[in-house]
């Protein structure tokens, strides 16, 4: 029996709502698990995984889910409130990422180890620098008059697209971190695969959200 267009649309929205709710749980659950594993305060290094998990799993994910039409925690608030909350969460994510980068760099220095020589280190550095640039670019949306030759719609499209790239970089950095010796000696078997699924799930949810909000809508206008 064929489904009507209305039924398919309702089913699709329900699936997106379920996926968004799962993303919220993962965004909070992943850094919580990392905190239990790293025991922050037990060593200088212990702060690095926690801060990076907070930055790219919790804060950045929630900053993007704010604009989700199905699962935003600020769904009943105005667009202006959502934008301000998004900016605040992104700024907090950047602060955590910079602190995490600074801590691991200093820890490597204290132990006489080379840094930025692994894929995880290089991707992490690129991600933090990209996040800084993305936050700077967000200022243009707060004050669009700074870019007189660009329409607000085009600025939003480019910001959303580049932000998605930055988020995927953050997820890739987290996944590479879970391939490190520190993580693989503590998390093994099924638990390791479940941990790897966390950034994969949130990245798929965010990709779907951005595609539907900007990219698909842009194509449908042509």
Structural summary, described in words:
With 222 residues, the chain is mainly alpha-helical. 78% of the residues lie in helices and 0% in strands. The chain has seven helices and no strands. α1 (5-38) packs across α7 and α3 runs antiparallel to α4. 27% of the residues are buried. The model has no long low-confidence stretch (mean pLDDT 91).
Summary tags:
single chain; 222 residues; mainly alpha; 7 helices; 78% helix
Quick synopsis:
This protein has 222 residues and is an all-alpha fold.
Set out the fold topology.
Blueprint: H1 5-38, H2 47-65, H3 79-110, H4 119-142, H5 152-177, H6 181-186, H7 189-220
Overall helicity: over 70%
Mean pLDDT: 91
**How far from one another are the termini?**
33 Å
Can you count the beta strands? 0
Percentage beta strand: under 5%
User: Uncertain regions: pLDDT < 50 for 5+ in a row?
Assistant: none
Radius of gyration: 19 Å
> Largest sheet, if any?
none
Overall geometry comes to globular
- Helix and strand pattern: HHHHHHH
Number of helices: 7
